[in-house]
Amino acid sequence: MLHTFVALVSDKPGVLTRVASLFRRLNINIVSLTVGESERADVSRMTIVCEAPETAAHRIRASLYKLEITVDVDEVGRSEAVIRELCLIKVAAGPQEPNGQNSRSQIFELANVFRARVVDLAPESIMLEMTGSSSKIEGLIQVLRESNYTILEVSRTGRMAMRRGHHTSRVLKALGTPNGENSPAADFATRPRADILPNEFPNVHEEEEEENQ
């Protein structure tokens, strides 16, 4: 299954390499990884989507906490957070395409249906920008391909996630969050350090320590 982790890490050279090496040692595949500035100075926000068994989530969190570059880590689910992805799609739309001159108007109609934006228009292509869930982006790509359009390029950011704010139990129930008002909806960045997991996997970083010697 897919797990989505949001980590606050120190904004230093080599941080991305250390995180990637950690997942390599754990033998866990990273599906997508997005890094950018956060609300804190000298701290970057990293959204990591990985494919691992359900029981591996606790181990991944504990391993990330053992890196001294890690400030905080949180695992978020669809019902507990707002998850979005940005995608740019370049589609061939010249006179030589199967739909000819009508291809542009048809692509404009598809963009309106999926609430995508046209951000570039060239004699031979159209570039669409779309922000939404992964399934919505996959839907647009699938419709374009099934409509015999030639997709020239696709660039996707991967998931970006942020935990939802405080809501009433009725809102949380409608969102599908378990345990109603007892669900952890507060921003993980403000949690006390006492909530951090202990170092339960002392041997995870033996390889890294040997490499640094």
Number of helices: 6
Instruction: Based on Cα principal axes, name the global outline.
Output: elongated
CATH topology of the largest domain: Alpha-Beta Plaits
Instruction: Classify the secondary structure makeup into a structural class.
Output: alpha+beta
What would your notes on this structure say?
- The protein contains six helices and nine strands, in the order βαββαββαββαββαα.
- It is of the alpha+beta class and 213 residues long.
- The protein folds into two domains: 2-79 and 165-212, 2-Layer Sandwich (Alpha-Beta Plaits), CATH 3.30.70.260; 82-156, Alpha-Beta Plaits (2-Layer Sandwich).
- Strands 5, 6, 7, 8 and 9 form a five-stranded antiparallel β-sheet that branches.
- A hairpin with a 5-residue loop joins strand 2 and strand 3 (43-51).
- It is elongated and about 60 Å long.
- 20% of the residues are buried.
- The model is unreliable at 180-190 and 192-213 (pLDDT under 50).
